[in-house]
Write a structure and sequence with these properties.
Number of helices: 3
Strand order of the largest sheet: 4-3-2-1-5-6
Number of domains: 1
Shape: globular
Order of helices and strands: HEEEEHEEH
Distance between the termini: 70 Å
Structural class: alpha+beta
Largest sheet: 6 strands, antiparallel
Number of strands: 6
Length: about 150
């Protein structure tokens, strides 16, 4: 019995000295999922854009453009970044800012759940290049698509 007490005391006294590092989450750990579908809308501009894009949780994209309906699949890395950005969009968010003062103003919004933000919102800085490329992909030719194939 005394040996057990000595071992227990030695073990407990070692706990505070140097704790082992906490392991980082592996890439297989489940990440939080945003409220899908994610939405992108582009309206206005001198060309009269009226593009609407819906992105499902599996990366499937359905877009309505002046050229018609487009369907493609977003690559996993881009979908992961859009998911992270979408977690910053709250259901009560709506775009704010001064009204457009010129007739050819273009507006791009990004939404998740019932929340929508202007793409130039600071919370979406990571998503902006992806959103812009997805817009280019769905309005361009299939052969020139980069993220949504």
């Amino acid at each position: 019995m005394p040996l057990l007490a000595v071992l227990a005391a030695g073990t407990l006294s070692a706990c505070g000295a140097t704790d082992p590092p906490i392991p980082q989450a592996s890439s297989t750990t489940a990440t939080r999922q945003a409220s899908f579908p994610l939405t992108i809308q582009r309206t206005g501009g001198i060309a009269g854009f009226r593009d609407t894009i819906s992105i499902d949780a599996d990366g499937h994209v359905l877009a309505g453009t002046k050229q018609g309906q487009v369907s493609c699949d977003l690559d996993r890395a881009s979908l992961a970044l859009l998911n992270e950005a979408a977690l910053q969009v709250h259901d009560t968010d709506q775009p704010t800012g001064p009204p457009a003062t010129h007739s050819d103003a273009m507006t791009v919004t990004f939404g998740a759940g019932t929340g929508v933000l202007a793409i130039d919102d600071a919370r979406l800085v990571v998503a902006a290049p992806i959103v812009n490329q997805v817009l280019a992909d769905v309005t361009g030719t299939a052969a020139n698509r980069k993220l949504c194939t």
